[in-house]
Amino acid sequence: MPRIFLSFRKPDSRWMRDRVYRALSERLGTDAIFKSGQSIPPGADFAEILRRQAAECEVMCVLIGPGWLDLRGEDGVRLLDRDHDWVRVEIATALRAGNRVVPVLLGDATSLPDASALPHEIAELARLQFLRVPETHLPDGLVHLGDELTALLSDTDPADGPGLSTARASDPEPSMTMTAHVSGGGSAYQAARDQTIRLA
Q1: How far is 106 from 63, CA to CA, in rounded Å?
Q2: Domains along the chain?
Q3: Is the distance from CB of 163 to CB of 156 less than 8 angstroms?
Q4: Tally: H helices and E strands in the chain
Q5: Distance from C-alpha of 12 to C-alpha of 113, rounded to nearest angstrom
Q6: E-state strands within 54-200
Q7: What is the DSSP track for 150-161?
Q8: How far is Cα 185 from Cα 1, in angstroms, rounded to an integer?
């Protein structure tokens, strides 16, 4: 069962999206990554597979390029405003399932959409911490993305269902909490003893 679901718009930042898929596949294995063009066999019910994978994934990466928000159909209607838009359906399905959803901004200048610009059932996307894959430092950005997603997956026990972190009962060491204060307008946060704190 794939652990990471890549949600994307086909016309949006295709070359960067393909680089993300290749990098994650090399890092985690192709079986761990769900990408519709590669993961749905010919003749399969793609609608059923998309909904099931979106509901069961541990992490959904919403790949957002410069055209993601405002792409329109031939009738001029914004794709995201259509009830049957698959990107909208995928994100809404993952959010309802309680899965971790991570916006991944493709490019140096792509911004996270404002909640007011999103359909209500996926407006939560605007409040989620994003990751960026910059075009100008693409190799480093892909490594960073792989590091962050690997860390998220390592905190998740598939037996407990999507998005749930589990304590390791076998750990004999007492728990300890550390508090880090991030300069430059950041917020304070806590991390367990066996976690790595990364400061941007």
Answers
A1: 7
A2: 4-168 (3.40.50.10140)
A3: yes
A4: 5, 7
A5: 15
A6: 59-64, 100-106, 131-133, 177-180, 189-192
A7: HHHHHTB-GGG-
A8: 40
Which residue is it, tokens 């597979």?
49
- For residues 106 and 11, is the Cβ–Cβ distance under 8 A? no
Give CA–CA dist 88/153, Å, rounded.
24
Burial of 60 (0-12, 13-18, 19+ CB in 10 A): buried
Structure tokens at 41: 């066999």
- Which segments of the chain have a pLDDT < 50? 156-200
Q: Per-residue pLDDT tens for 5-15? A: 999 999 898 99
Longest dimension (CA), the chain: 62
- What pLDDT is attached to residue 166? 34
Distance from CA of residue 137 to its chain's centroid? 20
The whole-number pLDDT of residue 48 equals 94
Q: In this predicted model, what pLDDT tens digit does every residue of 59-106 receive, in sequence order?
A: 999 999 999 999 999 999 999 999 999 999 999 999 999 999 999 999
Cα–Cα distance between 149 and 4 in angstroms, integer?
9
